[in-house]
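Lab notebook, bench 4. The sequencing result for the construct came back, and we need a structural model before the next group meeting so we can plan mutations. Quick request posted to the team channel:

Model the 3D structure of this chain.
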Amino acid sequence: MVQNKLDFKGVQEKAKELDFPGSVLEFFEGLMGQPYGGFPEPLRSDALRDRRKMDKRPGLYLEPYDFAKARKDLEAKYGKTSEEDLASYAMYPKVFEDYKKFTSTYGDLSVLPTKYFLGKPEVGDEFQVELEKGKILILKLLAVGPLSTQTGMREVFYEMNGEGRTVAVHDKKSSTSTKTRPKADPSDNSQCGAPMSGVVVELRIKDGQQVNKGDPLAVLSAMKMEMVISAPFSGKVAGLAVKEGDSLDGSDLICKITQ
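Done. Here's the predicted structure in token form:
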């Protein structure tokens, strides 16, 4: 609402046209239950459009879940699967897959002290990591080497249980660049802009593609929310200005739709 300069009345009047975050639509569907006094109408129907409406406990609408098949799929992909893994995947499949991708790269970081999980240690800092009961590593950061402009890597020197070690670490800040993107012209209704800042996690169109009003153009992720950006009217996609993985600011141009 702040990004698009909308007040409560404006949201009500434009609900049929606005792209609401997925979490808002799921709330209106009834996935969190029924609010006291029911949902506000016609706001709910205008926001949901052709999405389902639940008037009972959300669990009653769930299809039977095949846990045996899910476990088999997970074990084929990731190996040994715990009950916690299975439950996490059943409830949050995308989050679980992102987590497994992260741990396959960096390992299980849950054993790190919270301070060093959230932020880097300073040179001279010494701390302990308990891998399992009775197995403790004593780590001390000794020095951080210069940046290699060719690889974007730095050598990090540290002690582990008194023995010197070295590891090469990618310095993500070294490759950070600022890119200025064209903004959608609010006076030109053929231009579709990002409703808020976020990252393009999925692009569902390509240049020259014919779309109908309401068809999804892209999925934007911001502040752990996902928002589907839909076509404001029917037409042909032209001038696609983004790709998956791009970071956008509010009103950045996504594409044009010509009639």
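The mean pLDDT is 88.
Will bring this to the meeting.
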